[in-house]
């Protein structure tokens, strides 16, 4: 039995959670929902060089500064990532559920 991975982007955690509930009825192998940022300066409480430079780089980004469309959610406003592993046989059905709910694959 082969498996396929799907990465789908949503505008809100609630959208992704709704899709996750529908996908769980298909008995997916694995599923997670995460919020992501381009620069993860907030990861952990580390004061290391990576933490320091990520904050500097983020402040120079035009998307963060308001000089471009999108702001924190990115240009398309989708900063919620649904990651799902499904059996090959249900892959098309899982894609349909995600896309009908407004997810971007």
Task: Kindly list the characteristics that best describe this protein.
single chain; three-stranded antiparallel beta sheet; 3 strands
Q: What is the element layout, followed by pairings?
A:
Layout: E1 3-10, H1 13-24, E2 30-35, H2 49-60, H3 62-65, E3 80-87, H4 91-100
Antiparallel strand pairs: 1-3, 2-3
Please provide a written account of the structure.
This protein has 105 residues and is an alpha+beta fold. It has helices at residues 13-24, 49-60, 62-65, 91-100; strands spanning 3-10, 30-35, 80-87. It is 36% helix and 21% strand. It is globular and about 35 Å long. It has a 3-stranded antiparallel sheet, covered by helices on one side. The protein contains 4 helices and 3 strands; from the N terminus they run βαβααβα.
Structural class: alpha+beta
User: What proportion of the residues is helical, as a percent range?
Assistant: 25-40%
Side by side, the strands of the main sheet go 1-3-2
Total of DSSP H or I helical runs spanning 4+ residues:
4
Rg from C-alpha positions? Answer: 17 Å
- Measured by DSSP, the beta-strand proportion falls in 15-25%
Average of the residue pLDDT scores: 77
Stretches where pLDDT is under 50 for at least 5 consecutive residues are 65-71
Order of helices and strands: EHEHHEH
Write down the overall geometry: globular
Number of strands: 3
Quaternary: single chain
Determine the N-to-C terminus distance: 23 Å
Q: Please give the largest β-sheet.
A: 3 strands, antiparallel
Concise account of the structure shown:
With 105 residues, this protein is of the alpha+beta class.
């Amino acid at each position: 039995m082969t498996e396929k991975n799907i990465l789908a982007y949503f505008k809100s955690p609630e959208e992704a959670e709704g899709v996750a509930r529908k996908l769980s009825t298909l008995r997916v192998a694995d599923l997670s929902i995460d919020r992501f940022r381009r620069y993860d300066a907030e990861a952990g409480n580390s004061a290391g060089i990576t933490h320091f430079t990520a904050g500097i780089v983020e402040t120079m980004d035009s998307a963060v500064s308001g000089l471009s469309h999108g702001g924190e959610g990115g240009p398309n406003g989708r900063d919620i990532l649904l990651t799902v592993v499904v059996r090959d046989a249900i892959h098309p059905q899982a894609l349909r559920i995600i896309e009908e709910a407004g997810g971007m694959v």
